[in-house]
Design brief:
By secondary structure, this protein is an alpha+beta fold. The protein is built from six helices and 15 strands. The radius of gyration is 18 Å and the shape is globular. The structure holds 2,5-anhydro-1,6-di-O-phosphono-D-glucitol (AHG) and manganese (II) ion (2 copies).
């Protein structure tokens, strides 16, 4: 596993340089989800693939930016699913973005995830590793990642990050979000799940939601590359991640690019979501 973390560190230093100097324009390609890929998405994907290709312990990789799984080493132990540059459309307005990695053993599905890593590219570059039931944060200082602190969520927080398009929300979801704001929670939503979820983790708690909507009943966020890795991080930090009705790490994956509704947060906020969603389940 150490070799994988080192590879992610090397890739992150290269991606940091790419973000600082690269062309923020669109490419002519679409990814499997139907998003137009930016040149930055393609270049960061290539950086990661080239670095992972040299690691013998990696059996297979799959990226949000690729159509299918890439075989690396038959004898490798680990499978890695990654979103090379989440929130890439925020680079041109100079907001924070991130990379997300889910490390799986056996299959690309929720029950096989064993560790996760995300890297935030903001005013500082920080890497957060969830493994062995704990969450550790590192910061890039003089071109090396140095350990800073462990991350633990409080039982209840103060931040609310409600994703997706409001006019497509179910009425009970709208009522839930309104109630949370009426209880004094503050809006914190940048449109990049990495900095938004990082903020909730570091400020002690709150709620990030990306529900199923009338236009996208299964939400937008992708299971393998985005949702499962952060679900593990939130669980190991003492919080929870659900799809509305159950732990999101019980959601089945039938296709590598499947999406799922998702809610990440500290325990009190997630219990609140569960109560509302259970009352409104058909
Ligand atoms: P990506 O850049 O990989 O396509 O994903 C962006 C994601 C996520 O980071 C963010 O939380 C969400 O899209 C924002 O979507 P909305 O604008 O629909 O809220
Ligand atoms: Mn993404
Ligand atoms: Mn992406």
């Amino acid at each position: 596993m150490k070799d994988i973390i080192n590879a992610i560190e090397d890739a992150s230093i290269k991606i940091k340089n790419l973000i600082e100097t690269g062309d923020t324009g669109k490419s002519e390609n679409e990814n499997s989800t139907g998003d137009t890929q930016l040149k930055l998405d393609i270049a960061s994907d290539q950086i990661i693939e080239d670095i992972f290709a040299k690691i013998p312990s990696i059996k297979q990789i799959v990226s949000e930016e690729q159509d299918s799984i890439i075989d690396l080493n038959e004898k490798g132990e680990y499978l890695i699913a990654y979103d090379p540059l989440d929130g890439s459309s925020l680079v041109d307005v100079n907001l924070s973005v991130g990379s997300i990695y889910g490390i799986y053993k056996g299959n690309f599905d929720a029950k096989s995830i064993i560790a996760s890593v995300y890297v935030v590219f903001g005013p500082r570059v920080e890497m957060v590793v969830a493994s062995d039931n704990c969450v550790k944060m590192y910061r890039l200082l003089s071109n090396e990642f140095k350990y800073i602190q462990d991350i633990k969520l409080n039982q209840k927080g103060k931040l609310n990050a409600p994703g997706s398009t409001q006019n497509c929300w179910a009425p009970y979801h709208k009522a839930l979000i309104d109630d949370i704001f009426n209880d004094g929670y503050r809006l914190r939503y940048s449109g990049g799940m990495v900095p938004d979820l990082h903020q909730i983790l570091l400020k002690g708690g709150g709620l990030f939601s990306y529900p199923g909507t009338s236009d996208r009943p299964k939400g937008k966020l992708r299971q393998l590359f985005e949702v499962f890795p952060f679900a593990l991080t939130y669980e190991y930090a003492g919080g929870k991640a659900i799809d509305g009705l159950k732990n999101v790490l019980e959601v089945e994956t039938t296709h590598i690019h499947d999406t799922t509704p998702c809610f990440f947060g500290s325990n009190e906020e997630i219990n609140r979501v569960l109560k509302v969603y259970k009352e409104n389940a058909e």
